[in-house]
Amino acid sequence: MAKAKAAPSSSSGGKAAKKKKWSKGKVKDKAQHAVTLDKPLYDRIMKEVPTFRFISQSILIERLKINGSLARVAIKHLERDGQIKRIVHHSAQLIYSE
């Protein structure tokens, strides 16, 4: 009658199968953020940051391409001038608004 199932192929596993090659992984590019505050960057911070609805250190780092310590200093300066106000005070993350 009907033939039986064909023999399993060589790629089905066992010792005959090829060994899996491990990928090298994805390499993230090194961020080139500003580490010093010059006049054009200072003016940009003073003009743009108070217009953001949500202000945090990570937001400034991402949008303005500045260092984390520069972002903290800029936030403290803006708060002292009264241009932004603190919403949440947490030891790890300070959140501000316009």
Polypeptide structure, described:
The protein is built from three helices and three strands, in the order αβααββ. It has helices spanning 39-48, 57-64, 68-81, and strands at 55-56, 85-89, 94-97. Strands 1-3-2 form a three-stranded antiparallel β-sheet. The protein has a domain at 39-97: Winged helix-like DNA-binding domain superfamily/Winged helix DNA-binding domain (Arc Repressor Mutant, subunit A), CATH 1.10.10.
Q: Note the overall shape.
A: elongated
Strand percentage lies at 5-15%
Tell me the Rg in angstroms. 27 Å
**Main β sheet profile:** 3 strands, antiparallel
Quaternary structure of the protein: single chain
CATH superfamily of the domain at 39-97: Winged helix-like DNA-binding domain superfamily/Winged helix DNA-binding domain
What is the N-to-C order of secondary-structure elements (H for helix, E for strand)?
HEHHEE
Read across the widest sheet, the strand sequence of neighbours is 1-3-2
Helical residue percent?
A: 25-40%
Give the mean pLDDT.
Answer: 82
Structural class: alpha+beta
The number of E-state strands comes to 3
CATH topology-level name of the domain at 39-97: Arc Repressor Mutant, subunit A
In CATH's first tier, which class of the domain at 39-97 applies? Mainly Alpha
Number of helices: 3
Distance between the termini: 82 Å
CATH architecture annotation of the domain at 39-97: Orthogonal Bundle
Unreliable residue stretches? none
